Amino acid sequence: MSAAARRFWINDRTERLFVILSAIVMLNGLVFLLNTSAAARDTGDGSMAYQAVCTAIYGLAFAIALSRPAGVGRLIAANLPLVLFLAYVSLTVLWSVYPGVSLRRATALIGTTFLAGYAVLRFPLPELLRLYGWAFLVVAVAALAAGLLFPDIATHTSGRNAGAWNGIYSHKNDLGRAMTLGCLVFLLLLWQERWAKPVWWLGFLLCLTLIGLSQSKTAYVVTAALLSLLGYIGVSRSFRLPVSVRWLGILAVVLSVAVLGAMTVLEDVTSLLGRDMTFTGRTSIWTEVVLQIQQRPWFGYGYRAFWASDASAVVYAHVGWNSFGHAHNGFLDLTVETGLVGLGFFLLLCLMLARRGLAVTRNRPEPVFLLPLGLLVYLFGFGLSAHAFAEHGDLAWVLFCAALMYGALPLYRTVPLTFERVPS
Q1: pTM here?
Q2: Among 289, 347, 363, 366, which residue carries the largest CB count within 10 Å?
């Protein structure tokens, strides 16, 4: 091997390691080491260590991607609605009730999105999912080890969540959400490689186990929906069912997700502190947030500014909880932060993802290209009861943007966007 080839080989290995480590950070797999939490990030108080690590990741991805500026330009041209959404989020700084937080978080969202663009430019989708699979495996093993070795830290010990695992996360729902996304990635990898790779089976079973230990009802519902959706698509492909029958089956799965998700939310509300169904718990949060949205319906209070500012004091006062940092509903959170305009932008991106995902699956039968449909089920399922949309420093947003960008690649087949890879 020549010296030049050896240099490329080392760089290739190092780059893959960088992608895996960046995915672990985007999964908040270093939550305890970096002294941060989902609540802290929501309220604008993430640790300096976490911010420094994320800045380094975004900067390195930016530098590598810009070594081929033509590819970046074509990717931007193919995804103008996403660029406009990011531009609009950045503009919310102008009317934000907490401009400093909005500026930092909007910059982080752009960096997170650029991380997705870098991944699309550098790796084919199957290879990228394999790298992310290793990241999920590391996080799952760490969560399991934390629960077994440090139960006082990795398990809720009091209150209504007593006995539920949170692993390396600050809350059981964070663990359930991360492992649900892991289930989706591992299931696609297993299907792609014909169920023959033991390491992906290990990851898939670990994720299912941790979802059960987390006792997160939303994770139960969304995981079941993902398994049902992908299972149905697999059966329909095997038996070559007509397109109309396939669509009826997919519609049935989607409706089931909506019904089960609504039932889960209602059950959580009625069980909250043992109270009956009244305007308490999440319903009271939603009611107060809607009232605040009515004050600024079109443009909101600024990206990530509402819960970090005094504007949320009215909600806290009426609900009676100390601090929760979000509305327990992704649709309401995005609307209170960016207004109906921002919500409309995001729903347009979801529609584009669905359209591109369906187009790609018709042209590319590989199972990994079902990622867009799986992501939509994942996001909308968790969006009913959690802060799930357009999150900075979140691997779900990285995958959302990457899936959107991969879907645009067939439009530019004559000019390949991926770089040449040196075999390792």
Answers
A1: 0.86
A2: 289
